[in-house]
Amino acid sequence: MTDDRASVLILLLTSVFVLGMGCGTASGTTFYVGISNNDEECKGVDLDKSLDVSYTDFAILANYWLESNCIGTGNCGGADIVRNNAVDIADLSLFTECWLSELSDTLNVHLAINNLWMYQNLPGAAGSYLVSNVAITDDPLSNSSYSYQWGFILPSDVNLEPNIISGGGSGDNFVSFAARSCSETEGLSEFGSVFKVRVTVIGNDHGNIGTVEKEFGIALLGDVNNDCRVDVADRSIINAFWQTGSAGKFTLRDCDLNCDGVVDVADRSIANAVWQGTLCRDKVTSPCPLR
Question: What domains can be seen in the chain, in order of their start residue?
Answer without folding.
Answer: 2-98 (no CATH), 105-219 (2.60.40.3880), 222-291 (1.10.1330)
